[in-house]
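[job 4417] fold queue: 2 targets
>>> target A
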Amino acid sequence: KALGNITEKMLSTQLRELESVNLVNRMVYTEVPPKVEYSLTEFGKSLTPILDKFAEWGVNNQEKMSEIFNRKR
């Protein structure tokens, strides 16, 4: 829900791709209704400092990027 307008199919495809490169773990529970949980692997967690820097850059440059995108319209 927090991701916005992503379809379940696209989300599943992306999560399986992340699983295939060992960035996330997929845990399937055999219960009714079926339940699947995803978590970061240690390898996936190693990206946290990089993603934090990207997020920091985004916050620091939000106004400038808004100006750029608004000029393109």
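>>> target B
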Amino acid sequence: VEQEKRRLFSIALDRFEDPVLHQIYREKQQELDLQLTLIAERGKARFVELGRALYGPVEPPLLDVAVSILADTVDAAGMSPLEGEDTVDCFYVERKARTMIADYHRLHEGFDATIELRDDVPAGLMVSGRRLLISRRTLMKRHRVEALLSHEVGVHLLTYFNGSAQGLRVFRTGLAGYEGMQEGLAVFAEYLAGGFTPERLRLVAARVVGCSLMLAGASFVEAFRILVNEHGFDAQTAFGLLLRGYRGGGLAKDAIYLRGLLELLGHLKAGGVLDPFWMGKISASHFAVMQELGARGLLKAPVLRPICLESDRGRERLEKARFGLSPLDMLQH
């Protein structure tokens, strides 16, 4: 870690004559410094507070929304994530992912993502750079596959390759604080693809509750009992959900999904557009900066937009969001 920090601060940012670009890179340098410190403190008492500094606290209004969602989706409580429908395995997901990636590649040759089946990642999918990693332990409902690929391929990979087309690598790896809006966009893409479910929304809300409990000092067992006894989660789901939050000694990241989704819905209701978010991996705070850089010719328009926005149903759902949607409303459309 110390070696990487020396490399990080050996970069001379004063070479940037443009003050906007200087600020963007300075913010990223500070964020990477904090991330490196977080890595060094895994399993130690400071880890939780460093995570809080990196991802922010769970604000009371955000927690209120999460608790309200769990109360209003109580009919879905206790359901197994695989209950009530045929399931598919990692090989089915891989085939569907290859089809979607090929569709994007036909639209833009630079979209040259790769797929890896892995034994060393948790069940599900994740993106790392240009790679889509699929766990061999993956089992999911068939109707969730398109939505999940819209999340991972249609947002995370798409913004990586759109960011690559900008010429400045930071737009593909992510500006400081980009993760919240990136995950908000990705969850919203699940809705646009027509695969957003009560079970999925409950997980996103429960991550906020679990994160809040962890930051407040609750033990893993205490938080587990609250999710099971007060919010109706089955033991396996509650355990896996909290395992994400308590890793490393307590990582405050999981609140960003719902926070980012709420920021995005508010942005759309206020008349905001989405194109600057497709230019690369940016935060909500950089929206105006992206518009300015684009107007000055320093950024290109996105070469790709999510395929889920090209269907009639996807466009209809986006228009509904412009008139104002809550996360619960997303289940009705």
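[job 4417] complete. Note on B: The chain is about 55% helix and 5% strand.
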